[in-house]
Design brief:
By secondary structure, the chain is of the alpha/beta class. The chain is built from twelve helices and 14 strands. The protein folds into two domains: 223 residues, Rossmann fold (3-Layer(aba) Sandwich), CATH 3.40.50.2300; 130 residues, Response regulator (Rossmann fold, 3-Layer(aba) Sandwich).
């Protein structure tokens, strides 16, 4: 597989979506996420991970059904809900029946609402939403939908695992919470406050603030405030350029306590922390890559790096999305009846090449999987990020996180 440049990808997408004819043996999957602007690096990496997954898992293995292949159609939403809805309609008009998105829970909510309405009005032209990274708990609770599947542990499940670890660390006594000012960031803050109070009522909250998403150019004032607050650890759900900016500002201003994050790896963040991140930078995520627990997982990572030299293998869940979608299409015996595909996804269980069992809860469409607290280090790392010697190794694991967690989802089924 040859790596495609951003310009080439854009040209291909334009050609695909302006062609009325489509091949019967090609299943188009729209990727609607930022490919330009402050979160372009995150979006481009996810796109390449999905493109590789489609080739390695499906196309190179003979496809699905009678040899049908997957094709990822990249659409740059500039992290805008408005742009996303325009792309959604364009994709639907072009015959796309599967939508992938994950960067921004706000965008995910807008897409989900539009997809729900479209599917009610167009029972013969329905689409399925495969969410790989938007982790606002509302998406699998109050906003849950038969047409939506979440492949990443939501922020409540991740925070529960994270606060279990914090609760066992008596030296941690003062927290600073800093998050992007939108639904996901607010969910991280609310759950952190609740669970810290329940598990460690002695911990004080030295600060709890929000900043505009994707608009802060210099995080120095925030970093200085955190240092001066006396907090001995930080919790943040920041991602993309905002995580990089916050992390580098914290380092430059002398913060040395643990920084517990959801997305502090790759996209320049790992290299930015470098040696100073050892012992202080932690990420809660799924999947083991240092080392991969199976030969299949190790070969998959090597294959990705061969296809996209210099890029980070970050999001294990991209392979889970493609693997489970392909299995559901084969089980349903169709790629056009997405209701049948959704039914096949419900309750699906399979072993993943990166450790643990994957189980799609039928009651709220939340993927249940092992969740790990990963430490930033250069010791024993083979899957490194940003061209640096650093990567992530698991220090703690919560098996089948959220399996028994009650849900308030009241799903309206077709």
């Amino acid at each position: 597989m040859k790596k495609k440049t951003g310009a080439a990808i854009g040209a291909i997408a334009a050609l695909m979506l302006n062609t009325t004819a489509s091949f019967a043996d090609t299943i188009k999957i729209a990727f609607i996420d930022p490919l330009s602007g402050p979160f372009a690096a995150t979006g481009e990496n996810a796109l390449h991970l999905f493109q590789y997954a489609a080739e390695a898992i499906v196309n190179d293995a003979g496809g699905v059904l009678d040899g049908d292949t997957f094709e990822i159609v990249p659409l740059d939403n500039k992290i805008s809900a408005t742009e996303s809805l325009i792309h959604l309609q364009t994709a639907i008009d072009d015959g796309v029946r599967f939508i992938i998105q994950g960067q921004s829970s706000g965008v995910a909510s807008a897409l989900l609402d539009a997809i729900n309405k479209h599917n009610r009005r167009n029972p013969d032209d329905q689409v399925l939403f495969l969410n790989y990274a938007a982790v606002d708990p509302a998406l699998t609770s109050s906003l849950c939908s038969f047409w939506h599947f979440s492949f990443d542990a939501n922020s409540d499940l991740k925070m529960s695992a994270l606060t279990d670890v914090i609760a066992e660390s008596p030296d941690l006594t003062s927290a600073y919470l800093i998050n992007q000012d939108y639904s996901f960031g607010k969910a991280v803050s609310a759950t952190a406050n609740q669970l810290l109070a329940e598990k460690r009522p002695d911990i004080t909250i030295a600060g709890d603030e929000f900043h505009p998403i994707g608009q802060v150019k210099d995080f120095t004032p925030y970093a200085r405030k955190i240092v001066s607050s006396g907090a001995d650890f930080v919790i943040t759900g920041n991602w993309g350029a905002d995580m990089f900016g916050l992390g580098t500002a914290l380092i430059a201003n002398g913060f040395t306590g643990p920084i517990y994050t959801y997305y502090a790896s790759g996209s320049g963040i790992t290299a930015g922390f470098g040696e100073s991140g050892k012992g202080s930078l932690f990420v809660i995520s799924e999947g083991l890559t240092n080392p991969p627990p199976t030969e299949e997982g190790a070969a998959y990572i090597d294959g990705f790096h061969a296809a996209y030299p210099g890029e980070n293998f970050l999001l294990v869940r991209t392979s889970n999305v493609i693997r489970m979608l392909a299995a559901a299409i084969d089980e349903a015996g169709t790629a056009t009846d997405v209701q049948a595909v959704a039914t096949a996804l419900e309750g699906m269980e399979m072993d993943g090449p990166f450790g643990g069992t994957l189980y799609m809860r039928a009651d709220n469409h939340q993927l249940i999987q092992d969740v790990h607290i990963l430490a930033h280090t250069d010791e024993g790392v083979t899957n490194t990020f940003d061209g640096s010697p650093f990567g992530l190794i698991a220090e703690n694991t919560v098996s089948a996180a959220g399996m028994d967690t009650p849900t308030t989802c009241e799903m309206d089924r077709p």
